[in-house]
Amino acid sequence: MPSVISNHREWATLDLIRAAGVGRLDPIIRDFLEGGSGSEVTLRRNVAMFDTIGFAPAVMSGRAFPSLSTTFLGIDLALPILTAPFGADRLFHDDGQKAVVRAAQQFGLASIAPEASSFSLEDLSTAAPRAAVLGQFHPMGSEQNFVTMLHRYEAAGYRALCLTLDCPTPGWREHNLRNDYVITEDVVGGNYPAGSEGAMHEALGQLYLHDEPIWSWAQLGALMSETSLPWIAKGVLTSLDARRAIEAGASAVYVSNHGGRQLDGVPSSIESLPAIAQELAGEFPILLDSGIRRGSDIVKAISLGATAVVIGRLAAYGLAADGQPGVERVFDLLKRELQTVLQLLGRGDISELTPDAVIRLGGIA
């Protein structure tokens, strides 16, 4: 695994990488990246609730340098990190998700390739075949288009599928409304050639037909019988939906509120995690995103039941800052902080993180 060292102060911390990244973006694109839905209550809460969780260190543990590796659905990860399936990626850098998956491959990580990417799923698999191993798409619209995407991921060698369940229609994103901003096909149509069926419907995340019936768990489960690949239910926030996902055939649950970009007013992901972890009782792996801003947040999430976390905005900030090197620097800083926190907690392995590693500090100040 490479160690990315920079002589520039702008790369010293994740906050400085964010500042460098957003500073390079057009203000409208910056708003698109950083904004949430509604009054942005959930967007703020995603980050704030991590601050209500503290640590219970074990001093004088005598533990060796900690191991950070884990596995997820049989996929080896050098760090408990995947990159999120954020689309419209060329808005942040010309190399978009190609830079993200290449950076992930350099660090022994995995990426979730998005349906609404600027590049095709085949392009991303070719760019980084050891990292672009999970594919994301939406269970909505035409069943034929859905099955076609499913088989494309199979043919390209992907090892698992991630189904985004919380986007039957876009969230109420007022930054975009104020800016009169609508995503265009050129930045999200990598998987749909211009003019093809589904191009402006299932990939854009902006022009969904609001009068379509929303799919049911039974419909989704039946269609997923078309593949032997394991699949992940993304967008789960309750123990009831976690159980429904497993009953529909999911192999893993992905706790997410879409980074506060869909339904405003739902709990933060980290608040939702403990009940879901209790419901699944260690029988199924759990991913978590929304609100991860530093290595210590990753430790908190794993302590409370996540198998690994998924980073979206952090990866996008690194991408905007300097393409692949910027994303690699994000990974490097997360790795270093993870090592530091685990050592201070007296844990010699990421697998030793359990709820007794954390304590509740209180509500949001």
Which descriptors apply to this entry?
365 residues, two-stranded antiparallel ribbon, eight-stranded parallel β-barrel, single chain
Short description:
With 365 residues, this protein is of the alpha/beta class.
Q: What would your notes on this structure say?
A:
- It is a single chain.
- With 365 residues, the protein is an alpha/beta fold.
- The chain is built from 13 helices and twelve strands.
- The strands form three sheets. It has an eight-stranded parallel beta barrel with strand order 4-5-6-7-8-9-10-11, surrounded by seven helices. The protein has a two-stranded antiparallel sheet with strand order 1-12. A two-stranded antiparallel sheet has the order 2-3.
Which residues form runs of ≥5 with pLDDT under 50?
Answer: 1-7, 199-209
Globally, the shape reads: globular
Number of strands: 12
Structural class by secondary-structure content: alpha/beta
Computed over alpha carbons, the radius of gyration is: 19 Å
H/E topology pattern: HHHEEEEHEHEHEHHHEHEHEHEHE
Count of alpha/pi helices:
13
Beginning-to-end CA distance, first to last residue: 39 Å
Question: Percentage of helical residues?
Answer: 25-40%
| Largest sheet data | 8 strands, parallel, barrel
Q: Tell me the strand percentage band.
A: 5-15%
Overall pLDDT, averaged? 91
Cross-sheet strand order for the largest sheet? 4-5-6-7-8-9-10-11
